[in-house]
């Protein structure tokens, strides 16, 4: 079915369906389910970087947010970026700024994978920067960025969109932006599990929004060959995935270490030769522990102008659990005290192979011309997978396409993360009360608390050795993981899901119970109490959009009405009024 | 049944009724107070044409002058363009001629051009005669119809004629010049022959000669 269902009809016969009334829709409602706004950032001789244009015009950004967007939308030192450059950044939303109108319980977040949740307190910025010689400008250069600001981590979708629209924008200016924003306002909202057609500037992009019910590692979307002679839609294979192999080509032999650093949420700085490399590497690292959500702050591109610069670089405190991507050589001094620094050079080939960086002592991180390398004292808990590295390097010699190499790498990382997380999931499931202990007349039993020792005891017979051949200190890795923000985030999320699951089970048994039989010998007070409690449950279930079977809520509603009907009339009136 | 996606764009002066034509075609509705289009609207409609399904991907462009420069993005890769003028505004017919010129110079080489003289329900205020328009259309080998989005006159016909002119997939069986070698009427599905929408004048009902009128 075409997701443009409101505008899709079949056949020449008169359609029964009335026109969807675009006029009654809130202006920009659909647009805002994808983007907060689109900004144009320019270099003003007097002001420096400045926002030239924001779309929609009435979008509310604080001064602080505007300043951040301005600075982060230009490469730190842009001498090296002649031509067009694409990169991404992430900023914290100002305190006191209105939250998104999407609640935590919104349907998108309920069904989207943990790694693709809509951000609550951060924005992503997707940048297309153009710098070309231009004699008509005083500085001799045309320098401008088109920036998409969004809460969605859809780097591939938005960077592909920019590739389409930015060159047109630089030529045709504001009307082009106006057109694009209006077209995006006609897009269907992102719905997990659906393949959407997204028309923009005469092209239809087609992309599938992943769902949390997808089989991990399953192939995303098989292209059905159909007779598409004229305008084949622009099919994007993914909204969010990057070319992992390209991103990691100079650190392939350290992939195990990088995965562990990400899993543990260790403070890590990526120093890269360009914002493109910096942002892609950071986003690739963050995605390397998928389907686990990386719960720490991450900044694909971070500059001294960032509002968190002081907070994050303070030497009086231990470095925070964040990953920062930077390009300014000045940062070498700033981050000298950080435990892990990955310095990347321009990608080079040594013979057939991309040159691999070496592990180096932190003490060597001094001068501005510090060599590429992983500067750390970290020792991995698990041994590296030599077979994987051999396979990838062989792939390079055989000129295996980058997408295939990326798929191999992604599968490896996924299996590694799964092996690590499955024992935790299994143990967590054992903390749920038994289904038979959920009865209609009592509040459901508690979920048992997580006990690290109890969990460790399960590892002997149900540990990661069941699914992974990697040897090493898995126990040590788990212990360290328990202290990381990623464990905390994972546990909270699961706990919320389990509580909701329990609530669902409870509502379902209530629906199957014979309420009228039960209230027969109860006093009015008890019955009124029952009505109030049921109503509260109903409201909560609606608010949280609990994943209930279809008719449960309606059934409950009817029950409540029947129970009220059994009461004396004066009480009925009171209860119906409230 | 084979499905073909056909990109179609609507071009023409502001206020001539491009969006109304699309709404009539896709939703069979009409709103006299429709807002001016910003940029472009996109809609789809799938219809059966002989043994194929034609899915029209319709790009309804803005007629306002400030969006003029964006047009190439929408006619790029189009199988057909419907250029619309308002029969009560001579000026909009002149604009149409400029669009034809632009398409000839920069549009896709085999683009099917359809000319729609809209608002034919307002014949009292007519400024462009049907004959002039028809002669012009013939001179550039374009499809021509007078339409009324308001009264649902000839809207489907425009798209049917476009379907007829789109080169067939199997080029060995049918010619590439849709107009001259359009398929024989006997093979046409009944819906093509049973169109019930009223027509303004006999002139506009004229079909390619080898298609029998109902």
Automatic annotation (TrEMBL), chain A:
- Tell me one GO molecular function of this protein: guanyl-nucleotide exchange factor activity
Q: Which GO terms describe its cellular component?
A: recycling endosome
List each copy of the UDENN domain by range.
36-492
Tell me which positions the record assigns to the signal sequence. Answer: none
Query: InterPro entries recorded for this chain?
Result: ABL9/DENND6_dom, DENND6, Tripartite_DENN
Give the similarity note: Belongs to the DENND6 family.
**Protein name in the entry:** UDENN domain-containing protein
Q: Which organism is it from?
A: Albula goreensis
Tell me the lineage of the source organism. Eukaryota, Metazoa, Chordata, Craniata, Vertebrata
From TrEMBL, chain B:
Domain of life of the native organism = Eukaryota
What residue spans carry the region label Disordered? 181-214
PROSITE patterns reported in the protein's UniProt record: RAB (PS51419), RAS (PS51421)
List the CDD domains. Answer: Rab5_related
Q: What GO molecular function annotations does the UniProt record carry, in alphabetical order?
A: GTP binding; GTPase activity
Specify the protein's topology with respect to the membrane: Lipid-anchor
One cellular component term (GO) for this entry is: phagocytic vesicle membrane
Q: Which SUPFAM superfamilies does the UniProt record give?
A: P-loop containing nucleoside triphosphate hydrolases (SSF52540)
Biased composition, class Polar residues, residue ranges: 198-214
- InterPro entries, alphabetically? P-loop_NTPase, Small_GTP-bd, Small_GTPase
What is its subcellular localisation? Cytoplasmic vesicle, Phagosome membrane; Early endosome
Give the record's keywords alphabetically: Cytoplasmic vesicle, Endosome, GTP-binding, Lipoprotein, Membrane, Nucleotide-binding, Prenylation
The cross-references to NCBIfam families, in alphabetical order and at most eight, read: small_GTP
PANTHER family found in the cross-reference section: PTHR47978
Family per similarity comment? Belongs to the small GTPase superfamily. Rab family.
Q: What is this protein called?
A: Ras-related protein Rab-22A
The organism named in the record is: Albula goreensis
């Amino acid at each position: 079915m075409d997701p443009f269902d409101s505008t899709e009809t079949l056949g020449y016969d008169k359609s029964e369906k009335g026109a969807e009334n675009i006029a009654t829709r809130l202006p920009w409602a659909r647009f805002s389910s994808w983007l907060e706004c689109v900004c144009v950032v320019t270099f003003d001789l007097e002001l420096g970087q400045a926002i030239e244009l924001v779309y929609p015009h009435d979008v509310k950004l604080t001064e602080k947010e505007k300043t951040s967007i301005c600075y982060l939308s230009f490469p730190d030192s842009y001498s090296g970026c002649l031509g067009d450059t694409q990169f991404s950044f992430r900023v914290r939303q100002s305190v006191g700024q209105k939250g998104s109108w999407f609640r935590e319980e919104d349907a998108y977040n309920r069904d989207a994978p943990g790694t693709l949740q809509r951000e609550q307190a951060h924005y992503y910025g997707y940048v297309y920067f153009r710098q070309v010689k231009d004699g008509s400008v005083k500085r001799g250069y045309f320098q401008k960025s088109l920036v998409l600001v969004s809460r969605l981590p859809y780097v591939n979708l938005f960077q592909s969109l920019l590739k389409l629209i930015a060159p047109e924008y630089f030529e045709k200016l504001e009307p082009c932006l106006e057109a694009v924003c209006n077209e995006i306002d006609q897009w269907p909202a992102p719905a997990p599990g659906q393949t959407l057609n997204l028309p923009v500037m005469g092209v239809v992009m087609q992309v599938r929004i992943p769902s949390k019910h997808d089989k991990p590692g399953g192939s995303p979307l098989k292209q059905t060959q159909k007779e598409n002679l004229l305008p084949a839609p622009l099919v994007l294979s993914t909204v969010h995935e990057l070319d992992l192999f390209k991103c990691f080509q100079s650190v392939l032999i350290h992939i195990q270490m990088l995965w562990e650093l990400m899993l543990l949420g260790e403070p890590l700085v990526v120093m890269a030769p360009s914002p493109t490399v910096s942002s892609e590497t950071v986003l690739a690292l963050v995605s390397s522990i998928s389907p686990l959500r990386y719960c720490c702050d991450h900044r694909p591109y971070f500059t001294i102008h960032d509002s968190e610069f002081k907070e994050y670089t303070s030497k009086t405190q231990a470095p925070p659990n964040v990953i920062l991507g930077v390009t300014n050589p000045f940062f070498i001094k700033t981050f000298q005290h950080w435990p892990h620094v990955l310095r990347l050079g321009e990608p080079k080939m040594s013979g057939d192979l991309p040159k691999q960086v070496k592990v180096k002592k932190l003490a060597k991180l001094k001068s501005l011309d510090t060599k590429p390398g992983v500067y750390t004292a970290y020792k991995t808990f698990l041994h590296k997978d030599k077979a994987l590295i051999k396979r990838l390097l062989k792939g390079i010699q055989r000129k295996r396409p980058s997408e295939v190499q990326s798929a191999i790498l992604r599968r490896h990382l996924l299996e590694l993360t799964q092996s690590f997380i499955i024992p935790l999931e299994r143990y967590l499931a054992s903390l749920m009360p038994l289904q038979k202990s959920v009865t209609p007349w009592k509040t459901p039993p508690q979920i048992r608390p997580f006990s690290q020792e109890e969990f460790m005891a399960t590892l002997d017979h149900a540990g990661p050795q069941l699914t992974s051949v990697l040897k090493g200190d898995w126990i040590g890795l788990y212990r360290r993981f328990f202290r990381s923000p990623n464990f905390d985030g994972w546990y909270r999320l699961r706990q919320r899901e389990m509580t909701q699951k329990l609530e669902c089970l409870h509502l379902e048994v209530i629906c199957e119970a014979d309420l009228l039989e039960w209230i027969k010998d109860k006093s009015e007070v008890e019955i009124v109490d029952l009505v109030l409690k049921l109503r509260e449950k109903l409201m909560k279930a609606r608010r949280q959009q609990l994943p209930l079977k279809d008719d449960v809520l309606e059934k409950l509603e009817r029950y409540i009405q029947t129970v009220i009907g059994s009461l004396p009339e004066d009480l009925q009136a009171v209860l119906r009024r409230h | 049944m084979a499905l073909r996606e056909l990109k179609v764009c609507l071009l023409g002066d502001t206020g001539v009724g491009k969006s109304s034509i699309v709404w009539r075609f896709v939703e069979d509705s009409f709103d006299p107070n429709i807002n001016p289009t910003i940029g472009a609207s996109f809609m789809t409609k799938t219809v059966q044409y002989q043994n194929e399904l034609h899915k029209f991907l319709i790009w309804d462009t803005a007629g306002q002058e400030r969006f003029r420069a964006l047009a190439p993005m929408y006619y790029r890769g189009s199988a057909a363009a419907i250029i619309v003028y308002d029969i009560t505004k001579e000026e909009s017919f002149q604009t149409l001629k400029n669009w034809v010129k632009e398409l000839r110079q920069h549009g896709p080489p085999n683009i099917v051009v359809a000319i729609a003289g809209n608002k034919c329900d307002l014949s009292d205020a007519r400024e462009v005669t049907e004959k002039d328009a028809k002669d012009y259309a013939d001179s550039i080998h374009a499809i021509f119809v007078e339409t009324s989005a308001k009264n649902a006159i000839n809207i489907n016909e425009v798209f049917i004629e476009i379907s007829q002119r789109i080169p067939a997939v199997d080029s060995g069986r049918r010619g590439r010049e849709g107009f001259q070698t359009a398929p024989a009427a006997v093979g046409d599905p009944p819906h093509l022959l049973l169109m019930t929408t009223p027509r303004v004048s006999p002139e506009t009902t004229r079909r390619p000669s080898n298609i029998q009128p109902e």
